[in-house]
Amino acid sequence: MRYCKKAQYRISIIMNWQVISMKENQDILIIENLTKTYGTTLALDHVSLSFRKGEVHALIGENGAGKSTLSKMIAGAVSPTEGTITINGKQLSSLTPVQAKELGIGMVYQEFNLVAELPVYENLFVGKEIRKGVFIDRRTMIKKSEEIFREMGVSIDCTKKIKDLSVAYCQLVEIAKALLENSQVLILDEPTAPITNKEVELLFQVIRKLKAEGIAIIYISHRLEEIFQICDRISVLRDAKHIKTMAVSETTREELISLMIGRELSQEFPLRGKDFDYEGAKTVLKLEHLTNKYIKDISFELKQGEILGLAGLVGAGRTEILRAIFGADHVSAGEIFVHGKKSVIRKPGDGIANGIALIPEDRKREGLMLFLPIAHNMTITIIKKLCKFLLISRSREKKQLDDSVKLLSIKNSSLSKPVSDLSGGNQQKVVLAKWLSTTCDIFLFDEPTRGIDVGAKKEIYDFLFKLKAEGKSMIVVSSEMSEILNLTDRILVMHEGKLTGELRYQDATQEKILTLASGFGI
């Protein structure tokens, strides 16, 4: 009898534990057969997935795989052509943004929806201001704003204007906005793309806290190392279809890449071949004591056929060096020599005339004209070359476009469509095509693979080595340590606008670079 009671007690404990486990793993969001078509284009093809309370669920795939379409349908920004969305047991065939918020869906987009001139607390309560009679109750709004950030584990001055915050804190303000709407499902679209490694850890702390409170987080990212750090499960999309969902502990980086691109990625970075002959190579670009309000006393040489890396923390001045060389930023002192000749470069036109091309970090705002056709974006730099008797020769233009599309494998349905229709990787290829059609032989790459999927990254890496083999010279700025270590022949490290060290790739390590980048190696 005593044994039976003990057995019953154990069974009771097990059953209680199972109930608790079931609650913890309860699906809060279920999508079934979600489909979206735009004319003849299938953007999402009968995708079925579930998302649990208190989990971080990664949504990964190449650009154009359907991640954005799926997340926008969940957030109510896009209506499905077919399928259903079930939130907390309530099944719907479509949602509006207002309905999605009311049902507890919050989304933080890549482009922030914040008013730069307003303080943090006003951004949180815009459109839902707290009032005392006819007057706005700013004191209560500030107090509630501080409470929400305290719950997130973040210290922030809620009276500060958005324009005075770092990108990472703007990201946290967007998350706080979603939490004020009582979001139970939070979609984060490429949340770490614009922030530093140190800031990523702050974001991860917030995500872990939200997860512990039972919020389901859908995490969209191209950075696979982050997926393994922060996520519980992963769903892979490819060609608008759901390929596989698995626990993070049950997969590898190699398997994920294979699932995303539909083939094995034999080697992420190209093979180097023989070591670069720095002493024997011709100098194509030389800076002497280049100075402006961002950079101080910068001197170095770039050799023909060399890939020179610029490493450093965000704000170190890497981008500003590229902009000064290209003529996008004013130079107050110092000299630039191109192919041994002193050059006066005061504007981008001067840079182009000296055979210098800049592939900027923000391709959407600085590298492309998003609402113009793909074709116009690819040929804008060689309009004069394509003209015949003051008119553009259509045959010349077609040949140039065909050659560029073939060379760079630019995936498109029509070159007459806006370049904004393309994926991030193909947009980057269009920027490249624009410069490759010129006579430029010095290429300045600023974060060349930011926001690009693994398949497109591999193509960009291979193309950098193709340019190198053709004798072109490149300066590459990258925040991804693996790119700096595996692509470059030589690495210059910066800290607070100054060069703090130089490393040949054979001697470079992550530790050495970070030491110099933090200023400790000075």
Give the total of domains. Answer: 2
Low confidence ranges: 1-24
CATH architecture of the largest domain: 3-Layer(aba) Sandwich
Q: Calculate Rg over CA atoms.
A: 26 Å
Shape: globular
CATH class category name of the largest domain: Alpha Beta
Give a verbal description of the structure.
The model is unreliable at 1-24 (pLDDT under 50). Helix content is 37%, strand content 25%. The protein contains 19 helices and 24 strands. It is of the alpha/beta class. It starts with a helix and ends in a 5-residue tail after the last helix. It folds into 2 domains: 24-261, P-loop containing nucleotide triphosphate hydrolases (Rossmann fold, 3-Layer(aba) Sandwich); 283-517, P-loop containing nucleotide triphosphate hydrolases (Rossmann fold).
Keywords:
522 residues; alpha/beta; Rossmann fold; 2 domains; 6-stranded mixed beta sheet; 19 helices
Give the helices and strands, then pairings.
Blueprint lengths: L1 H23 L2 E12 L2 E12 L3 E5 L6 H8 L7 E6 L2 E3 L4 H6 L2 E4 L11 H5 L6 E2 L2 E2 L1 H15 L14 H14 L4 E5 L7 H16 L3 E5 L3 H7 L2 E6 L2 E7 L5 H9 L21 E9 L6 E6 L3 E6 L5 H9 L6 E6 L2 E3 L4 H6 L2 E4 L3 H5 L6 H6 L3 H4 E2 L2 E2 L1 H15 L15 H13 L5 E5 L7 H16 L3 E5 L3 H7 L2 E6 L2 E7 L5 H8 L5
Parallel strand pairs: 3-10, 3-11, 6-9, 9-10, 15-22, 15-23, 18-21, 21-22
Antiparallel strand pairs: 1-2, 1-4, 4-5, 7-8, 11-12, 13-14, 13-16, 16-17, 19-20, 23-24
Summarize the entry for a quick read:
This protein is α/β, with parallel strands linked by helices and 522 residues long.
